[in-house]
Amino acid sequence: MWKEFFKDYFNFTKKERKGIFYAVALLLILILFPFLSPYFTKRQPIDHTQFEKEIALLQVDSSSKKLYTSNADDEYFNDHASGRFNKNNRGKAFFFDPNTATVSDWLRLGIKQRTAETIQKYIAKGGRFHQPEDLKKIWGLGKDDIDRLLPYVTIKSSTKEFQLAKNKEYTEPVHTYTLRTIEKIDINLADTTAYIALPGIGSKLSKRIISFREKLGGFYSIDQVGETYLLPDSTFQKVKPYLAMSNTPVKKININTASVNEMKSHPYVRYNLANAIFQYRQQHGNFNSAEEIKKILIITDEIYLKIAPYLIAE
Q: What domain range is 261 assigned to?
């Protein structure tokens, strides 16, 4: 029985035996080729000089860069490069008026160029420092810099006089400054500079507030400012007393003519609401008033009160 089994399944012709032999040989060659190939190929030596040339070029490029353009800026940059700029030496302190100081003056005082440019934009748009403590409102100005510069602030004014603290090495005439509180701003009319003047509001937050205002079509409530993306509630509560609102009308959406895309572009009207309003209008005809959208099941009283100021039926 077993002999017949082996005879039926393992009896090969001469050609079949040759084919099996060649197949096994080819398989062995493919298996052993990765291990034997290093002996048949010539390794190319690594050219280290090329890497050295590239590194040298990078060093030349980096050493030739200049971060600042003016003479005062060069001096500030050289202090950094030479290692003289540290926590105990942040520029050369001298008496200055923040209302007239140039970017170069701020750099000599050890203030970052970006912060100096922000101050200049604030002054250019009508902003003013009325007392030394107003430095605390500058976004990007650290507490250490404020404490270091306050004794050197001299603000000229014709109102109440206060003698400024002076460094013992200097003898300066007495100057005056005006005490004031932070002025309120109109949330629908204020620009980024006005928002930056508020405590805790920097350039990014001010841009986000204005962008949110434009997408809404204007604010109808001061509390809406607190809905701005990434605006902490603690910061909003801090600036809320300085926010005011005039009777500036908000931009309205005509629910009788607006398309789904036009409605859903509003932050308060997402696609499901826009589509529901559109479908209801298609089935029942134009709305007689904006209040009629309350007949749509998915629109609750809370949703209606939120979006109603932005809707009109004409």
A: 253-312
C-alpha span between 136 and 142 (Å, rounded): 8
pLDDT tens digits, one per residue of 51-67? 555 555 555 444 444 33
Q: What is the pLDDT of residue 297?
A: 92
φ/ψ of residue 230, rounded to 5: 65, 15
Give the CA dihedral 78, 83, 87, 92, nearest 10 degrees.
Answer: -30
Does residue 58 lie within any of the structural domains?
A: no
Nearest to 209, CA basis, from 239, 177, 179, 183:
239
Please tell me whether residue 138 adopts helix, strand or coil conformation: coil
- Structure tokens given for 172: 């300066």
Q: Residue 312 in 3-state DSSP?
A: strand
Distance (Å, whole) CA 80 – CA 74: 10
CB–CB of 292/265 below 8 Å?
A: no
Q: Domain of 116: which CATH number?
A: 1.10.150
Residues paired with residue 186 on neighbouring β-strands, in sequence order: 244
Q: Write the pLDDT tens digit of every residue in 73-84.
A: 444 444 444 444
Choose the weakest-confidence range: 36-50, 118-132, 141-155.
36-50
Give the single-character DSSP code of 310: G
- Hunting for tokens 């979006």 — which residue is that? 307
Extract the tokens encoding 275.
């589509």
What is the tally of structural domains in the chain? 3
H/E element holding 191?
none
User: Identity (one letter) of the amino acid at 25?
Assistant: A
- The residue type of 246 is S
Same domain, yes or no, for 240 and 266?
no
